[in-house]
Amino acid sequence: EIVMTQSPATVSVSPGERVTLSCRASQSVRSNLVWYQQKPGQAPRIVIYDASTRATGIPARFSGSGSGTEFTLTISSLQSEDFAVYYCQQYNNWPITFGGGTKVEIK
Amino acid sequence: EVQLVESGGGLVQPGGSLRLSCAASGFIFSNYAMTWVRQAPGKGLEWVSSITASGGTTYYADSVKGRFTISRDTSNTLSLQMNSLRADDTAVYYCAKGMTNRWWTFDSWGQGTLVTVSS
Fold first, then answer.
1. Mutate to test the interface with A, among B5, B104, B111 (most CBs of A within 10 A)
2. On chain B, which terminus has fewer CB atoms closer than 10 Å, C or N?
């Protein structure tokens, strides 16, 4: 099973600041990596797929990069609606696995 | 507009059974792979089971293999039959739709249905 490790677990950021979230895979997942955003009481929402492609309706301030085992999600200027938990997910190998999540909270 | 509406959750005793359903609309259901993902209270996301668009191939997490069965029908419904339920199956269960040509990338999710396994 591929283990997905996200860091940090929690990050405190002020609105308007830039934040970078990390996701590491225990073995290569090529670019088969997805990022989701989840707000309290809501279902997850896709943000980035194929490691770096923004999903429909996702603002340009979100960007993803990486391949193989190291991935990042960057939010260039945090807006109030971006405070949430972010999960990475690999689908290169079965079973599909998610990272433990990074909570982006208001500083 | 894609809509996924789960139902069937509730309180069940350990060892009991429950059948979850996900009613899909707004897209050609038979063209897309579908997946169940769960989230225990206060925890992260856990993949549970997936089924291809044709229904011909299914996949299960080791934690549910032999106890859960995923299926789909021509009435645009995805189902998850859950038997021999345990306390650690307690979670919100989401159904999720795969993307075109990226079956295991989930671009739409339902609102979830809560399953509580407790005596």
1. B104
2. N
User: What does the pLDDT look like over B50-90, one tens digit per residue?
Assistant: 999 999 999 999 999 999 999 999 999 999 999 999 999 99
Other C-beta atoms lying within 10 Å of the C-beta of residue A84: 20
Q: Are B107 and A55 in contact (CB < 8 Å)?
A: yes
Residue B11's pLDDT is 98
What pLDDT is attached to residue A9? 97
Residues of B in contact with A46 (CB under 8 A): 105-107
How long is chain A? 107
Chain centre distance of CA B61: 12
The amino acid sitting at B43 is: K
List the single residue in A with minimal CA-CA distance to B43: A100
Q: Which amino acid is at A10?
A: T
